[in-house]
Specification:
This protein has helices spanning 36-54, 75-88, 108-116, 131-136, 143-155, 176-186, 204-207, 215-231, 250-256, 289-292, 310-318, 327-334, 342-350, 365-369, 371-376, and strands spanning 7-13, 15-16, 28-29, 60-67, 91-101, 121-127, 161-167, 191-196, 235-238, 241-243, 260-265, 269-275, 279-284, 301-304, 325-326, 354-357, 360-363. The protein is an alpha/beta fold and 379 residues long.
Length: 379
């Protein structure tokens, strides 16, 4: 087990209040009472089986609870989950523990309890402050409820939180996203996720496409919003992620930097390096909650990443980051010699797609716009 590679834990909660028409995540509208106790039991058993399978002992650098809507679960059950995890794995002293939350689930006492049990970062799915856009997106909260949720988060002590916003929304004008971000910045979040609405397969919006702005309008809105974020101290460090200095999502950084992460919960995915470069495996769990709760061994898949595919996977992840990657990190995270990258790296440099400084490779301004063209050279 490569002990120098950081380890994170992703926990998936598959239930939400209702399914949004653009969402392609493994989420299911809750019907009746949630099986909180049974699901937490299953998560802890799932983790124990992963730890046994991979002989995992590394300390956890971060935990991310995503979904679905994890904030539908009570603080008491989340506390039981975190306590159970800590009995199985060591927490780093400065561990980052993030909980995704829907503004429609915010209650002051509940989120105060979340803070007291050790959750030190929230990710709040706002998407827009404008009620007409929220309605078209199928969100269950209003703009005022979103603002109130942020105020509650700050009042109960969350000084590190992310706000999610989308641009290119149905029937939106060029100023709509700009106005949303202006209001968001006024709350002083440490992190903002800002991404374009895309019509993903197997979603309602893909089957029945809404009326979206044209590409030129979307691009103009994106540029204006990115400048607004930069002017207010939010540094873009990934394609759709912006943070105040030192407040990048540690969990997401570990993912993009080809770190390791266990994935537990219905439909959760993981990536574990067992023996470099010959055994880096992807894991996945049963997608349907009812099936997952049975925790059958044949529902737990672990498949190796082929050695020939590792360079592309590493580059594809790391070049999403503004900082790019160092060749030394490539060898440390993959076990491969950096010679396997040299032909493609040279081609990208010659075409002005990559900048290099002391063996650190990152996208140039041109390369940032043509990332697919870069990745084709490593495939």
């Amino acid at each position: 087990m490569p002990s120098s590679i950081p380890l994170s834990l992703y926990i998936h909660f598959p239930w939400c209040i209702q399914k949004c028409p653009y969402c392609d995540f493994n989420s299911h509208a809750a019907k009746g009472d949630l099986p909180e106790v049974v699901y937490i039991d299953a998560l802890l058993k799932d983790l124990a089986q992963d730890i046994e399978q991979f002989s995992e002992t590394r300390p956890l650098q971060s935990i991310f609870m995503g979904g679905g809507t994890p904030s539908l679960f009570s603080a008491a059950q989340i506390e039981r989950l975190l306590t159970g995890i800590q009995k199985q794995l060591v927490f780093a002293d400065d561990i980052e523990i993030t909980l995704e939350a829907n503004p429609g689930t915010f209650e002051s006492d509940k989120f105060s309890d979340y803070r007291s049990i050790g959750i030190n970062r929230l990710s709040i799915g706002v998407q827009s402050f404008q009620d007409e856009h929220l309605k078209r997106l199928g969100r269950v909260h209003s703009g005022d409820e979103a603002k109130r949720a942020i105020e509650i988060a700050k009042q109960v002590g969350f000084d590190n939180f992310n706000l999610d916003f989308m641009f290119g929304l149905p029937e939106s004008g060029e100023q709509d996203s700009y106005q949303d971000l202006q209001q968001a910045i006024a709350f002083a979040p440490t992190h903002l996720s800002f991404y374009q609405l895309t019509l993903e397969p197997n979603t309602y919006f893909h089957k029945y496409p809404p009326n979206l702005p044209d590409d030129d309008a979307i691009f103009a809105s994106q540029l204006a919003c990115q400048q607004l974020l930069a002017d207010n101290g939010y540094q873009q460090y990934e394609i759709s992620a912006y943070a105040q200095a030192g407040k990048q999502s540690r969990h997401n950084l570990n993912y993009w930097q080809f770190g390791d992460y266990l994935g537990i919960g219905a439909g959760a995915h993981g990536k574990i390096s067992c023996q470099l470069p010959d055994k880096i495996v992807r894991t996945s769990k049963a997608k349907q909650p009812e099936q997952y709760l049975k925790l059958l061994k044949n529902d737990r898949l672990a498949s190796p990443i082929l050695v020939d595919d590792i360079p592309l996977e590493f580059v594809m992840n790391n070049l999403r980051l503004k900082t790019g990657f160092c060749l030394d990190d490539f060898k440390a995270r993959t076990g491969l010699n950096s010679d396997v990258l040299q032909t493609a790296l040279q081609q990208c440099q010659q075409q002005g797609l990559l900048d290099v400084t002391q063996n650190n490779y990152r996208c140039s301004e041109k390369g940032w716009l043509f990332l697919d063209s870069i990745l084709e050279k490593f495939s």
